[in-house]
Hints:
Elements: H1 26-39, H2 51-54, E1 61-62, E2 68-69, H3 71-91
Antiparallel strand pairs: 1-2
Amino acid sequence: MRRVSFDRFKGNNTGVLLWGERGCGKSQILTYATAWAHENQWINFSITDPEAFTSGKTELFRFKNGLYLQKDLAVKLLKDFKHANEQSLNEF
Protein backbone atom coordinates (compact mmCIF):
# COMPACT_ATOMS: atom_id res chain seq x y z
CA MET A 1 0.00 0.00 0.00
CA ARG A 2 2.76 2.43 0.87
CA ARG A 3 4.43 1.95 -2.51
CA VAL A 4 1.34 2.75 -4.58
CA SER A 5 -0.46 5.18 -2.28
CA PHE A 6 -0.39 8.88 -1.58
CA ASP A 7 2.48 10.52 0.30
CA ARG A 8 0.08 11.19 3.21
CA PHE A 9 -0.58 7.46 3.70
CA LYS A 10 0.80 6.67 7.17
CA GLY A 11 0.47 2.89 7.37
CA ASN A 12 -1.72 -0.14 7.00
CA ASN A 13 -3.91 0.78 9.97
CA THR A 14 -4.96 4.15 8.57
CA GLY A 15 -7.56 2.52 6.34
CA VAL A 16 -8.21 2.11 2.67
CA LEU A 17 -11.42 2.70 0.76
CA LEU A 18 -12.25 0.64 -2.31
CA TRP A 19 -14.92 2.11 -4.52
CA GLY A 20 -16.17 1.63 -8.01
CA GLU A 21 -19.06 0.49 -10.09
CA ARG A 22 -20.62 -2.91 -9.66
CA GLY A 23 -18.48 -5.65 -11.16
CA CYS A 24 -15.22 -3.69 -11.25
CA GLY A 25 -13.39 -6.14 -8.91
CA LYS A 26 -13.69 -4.69 -5.38
CA SER A 27 -14.57 -8.08 -3.89
CA GLN A 28 -11.75 -9.78 -5.77
CA ILE A 29 -9.26 -7.30 -4.35
CA LEU A 30 -10.57 -7.90 -0.81
CA THR A 31 -10.40 -11.67 -1.34
CA TYR A 32 -6.82 -11.41 -2.56
CA ALA A 33 -5.86 -9.17 0.38
CA THR A 34 -7.42 -11.64 2.83
CA ALA A 35 -5.58 -14.57 1.22
CA TRP A 36 -2.32 -12.60 1.34
CA ALA A 37 -2.90 -11.82 5.03
CA HIS A 38 -3.49 -15.51 5.79
CA GLU A 39 -0.32 -16.49 3.95
CA ASN A 40 1.61 -13.95 5.99
CA GLN A 41 0.05 -15.22 9.22
CA TRP A 42 -1.92 -12.07 9.98
CA ILE A 43 -5.02 -12.36 12.13
CA ASN A 44 -8.09 -11.90 9.93
CA PHE A 45 -11.55 -10.81 10.92
CA SER A 46 -13.88 -11.35 7.99
CA ILE A 47 -17.62 -10.82 7.89
CA THR A 48 -18.72 -13.49 5.44
CA ASP A 49 -22.44 -12.60 5.46
CA PRO A 50 -22.88 -8.86 6.14
CA GLU A 51 -26.52 -8.97 5.07
CA ALA A 52 -27.32 -11.15 8.09
CA PHE A 53 -26.45 -8.20 10.33
CA THR A 54 -28.77 -5.77 8.55
CA SER A 55 -31.66 -7.85 7.25
CA GLY A 56 -33.56 -7.99 10.56
CA LYS A 57 -34.17 -11.71 10.13
CA THR A 58 -32.22 -12.76 13.24
CA GLU A 59 -33.40 -12.46 16.80
CA LEU A 60 -32.01 -9.50 18.70
CA PHE A 61 -32.08 -8.32 22.29
CA ARG A 62 -32.12 -4.59 22.92
CA PHE A 63 -30.69 -3.32 26.20
CA LYS A 64 -32.15 -0.30 28.05
CA ASN A 65 -29.13 1.79 27.04
CA GLY A 66 -29.92 1.30 23.34
CA LEU A 67 -27.28 -1.30 22.60
CA TYR A 68 -28.43 -4.59 21.18
CA LEU A 69 -27.13 -8.13 20.91
CA GLN A 70 -27.69 -10.60 18.09
CA LYS A 71 -26.55 -13.68 19.99
CA ASP A 72 -26.72 -16.18 17.12
CA LEU A 73 -24.75 -13.88 14.82
CA ALA A 74 -22.18 -13.16 17.53
CA VAL A 75 -21.61 -16.87 18.12
CA LYS A 76 -21.28 -17.55 14.37
CA LEU A 77 -18.89 -14.63 13.96
CA LEU A 78 -16.64 -15.84 16.78
CA LYS A 79 -16.67 -19.44 15.50
CA ASP A 80 -15.74 -18.23 11.99
CA PHE A 81 -12.97 -16.08 13.50
CA LYS A 82 -11.61 -19.06 15.46
CA HIS A 83 -11.73 -21.35 12.43
CA ALA A 84 -10.02 -18.84 10.13
CA ASN A 85 -7.25 -17.98 12.61
CA GLU A 86 -6.88 -21.18 14.62
CA GLN A 87 -3.19 -21.73 13.86
CA SER A 88 -2.21 -18.14 14.69
CA LEU A 89 -4.35 -18.13 17.84
CA ASN A 90 -2.75 -21.40 19.04
CA GLU A 91 0.69 -19.86 18.57
CA PHE A 92 -0.27 -17.00 20.90
